[in-house]
UniProtKB/TrEMBL annotation:
The lineage of its organism: Bacteria, Pseudomonadati, Pseudomonadota, Alphaproteobacteria, Acetobacterales. This is Glycosyl transferases group 1. GO terms for molecular function: glycosyltransferase activity. Keywords: Transferase. The keyword Transferase applies. It comes from Falsiroseomonas stagni DSM 19981. Residues 1-23 are annotated as: Disordered. It holds the Pfam family Glyco_trans_1_4.
Length: 439
């Protein structure tokens, strides 16, 4: 009689599978943002945040909470987020204040520690949604993205709070005030800066961790919050292959979300002080302006070769057909993602020092950096007129990005920070439980 080995499957005569332990449950992360960003939202910071979320979703179960507002393809954004996240909660946008209430807010924003942009996103529904999710999810942390969301740091229960500052307003709004002209405008900008200063000092102090995009922002945050971990988490990019056939008939490219004050100011300065000097040297050159919220005054310059594109579907095409990318910022904080986007797509860049901030470039090596309107215009003419210079800048820029702005490095360092503060919270909770039982 043949004996049957109990470890064999009698049907296949192969070893039966050995039972394995269930994998440990995935850690989770709560992310709260001003809008449901996605690849086609038309806002550089939003696209960057979505690319980060894609990579974090491979490590965490993401619970995403945002206001239901997005400039382009809202339904596509919901689908993209739903594919990646364990849950997606979208809330109505708070009702906008206006009339006397808005005018009154101009005077009280410093006293109340509530800048106008923050007041526009103050929502009891958002506070409740974050609090309920924090109470029912054993997350490593709550990640609040963009300064406007820092006001919800007190609604996260006992979960650690990490604030992704993106743009440290106490830096950028100070620069905006310094650049303002006219007594009324300077006063308004000073009030806005003071309001942001009080707001960020209050809410960032309640965070367990801060993320900064640039060395400058990190230095400022560390000086104000020396006891709070502050991670330099620069923008990251995927290098694109060189677009074939870029010739001297390419245009100058400027893209941005023009509801954002630094972008609008940059466009005003570009059209008034820089572009006329470029056209005197290159009368056939065109300036293509893309992005949401382009102000009406841009269309007044059509005769000077200005083309208003509005929202563009593909940055690859926009920069692939361009001769040079312009980043003419006079104020702002963080890192200018448009510069990174152009560099990643083999498009040479001309920027101001603030436009180049956070990228660690050497002027004249990875990009041209100009300090005033005359030198900016001269750089645009020089790059546009020399294939050799344009190619040298673009090649050096891509090599620089590959060395210093990889996604692997960004995600690895951020995950380590989140896991560290999550472990510290669990250790504190364990001590509290043990002390309660023993007492």
């Amino acid at each position: 009689m043949t004996k049957v080995d109990p470890m064999l499957d009698t049907t296949t005569a192969r070893p039966a599978p050995v039972p394995t332990a269930a994998p440990p449950p995935r850690r989770s992360l709560i992310i709260a943002a001003p809008w449901p960003y996605h690849p086609g939202c038309g806002i550089g910071g939003g696209v960057l945040c979505f690319q980060l979320l894609e990579r974090l979703a491979a490590r965490y179960a993401i619970h995403f909470i945002a206001f239901d507002q997005v400039p382009h393809d809202a339904e596509g954004g919901r689908r993209a987020l739903s594919r990646l996240c364990a849950s997606v909660t979208l809330l109505p946008v708070p009702a906008a204040s206006g009339g006397l209430a808005d005018k009154g807010g101009q005077f009280t924003q410093v006293l109340l520690r509530q800048p106008r942009e923050v007041r526009g996103m103050a929502s009891p529904a958002m506070a409740r949604a974050i609090a309920e999710r924090a109470a029912t999810t054993d997350a490593d942390a709550v990640l609040l993205q963009f300064p406007q969301m820092a006001q919800y740091a007190g609604d996260c229960g006992d979960l650690p709070v990490v604030i992704d500052t993106q743009d440290v307003a106490l830096v950028s709004r100070f620069r905006e005030w310094r650049c303002a002209t006219g007594r009324g405008r300077r006063l308004a900008r000073l009030v806005a800066w003071l309001a942001w200063l009080r707001y960020e000092l209050h809410w960032y102090a309640r965070a367990d961790g801060l993320l900064a995009l640039s060395d400058n922002d990190q230095g400022v945050l560390r000086s104000f919050f020396p006891d709070t971990p502050c991670l330099l988490s620069p923008v990251a990019a995927e290098i694109r292959p060189r677009a074939p056939g870029r010739g001297r008939d390419g245009y100058a490219a400027f893209i941005g979300n023009f509801d954002h004050a630094p972008n609008r100011d940059a466009l005003e300065w570009l059209l008034a002080a820089i572009w006329p000097a470029v056209r005197r040297e290159l009368p056939e050159m065109e300036l293509h302006i893309a992005g949401p919220g382009i102000p009406a005054f841009a269309a007044e310059h059509v005769a000077a070769g200005v083309v208003v594109r509005g929202f563009v579907e593909s940055l690859d095409d926009f920069y692939g057909d361009a001769r040079v990318a312009l980043v003419p910022y006079r104020f702002g904080g963080g890192t200018k993602i448009k510069a990174l986007d152009a560099m990643a797509r083999f498009c040479p860049v001309v920027a101001t020092p603030i436009g180049a901030e956070g990228l660690g470039v050497t002027p004249g090596v990875e990009m041209e950096v100009a300090i005033d309107a005359a030198s900016f215009a001269a750089s645009v003419v020089r790059v546009s007129g020399s294939d050799a210079l344009a190619t040298r800048l673009a090649e050096a820029a891509q090599q620089h990005l590959a060395r210093h702005f990889s996604w692997d490095s960004k995600v690895r360092r951020l995950s380590a920070m989140l896991e560290e503060i999550g472990a510290a919270r669990r250790a504190r909770s364990g001590r509290v439980v043990r002390e309660g039982v023993g007492g």
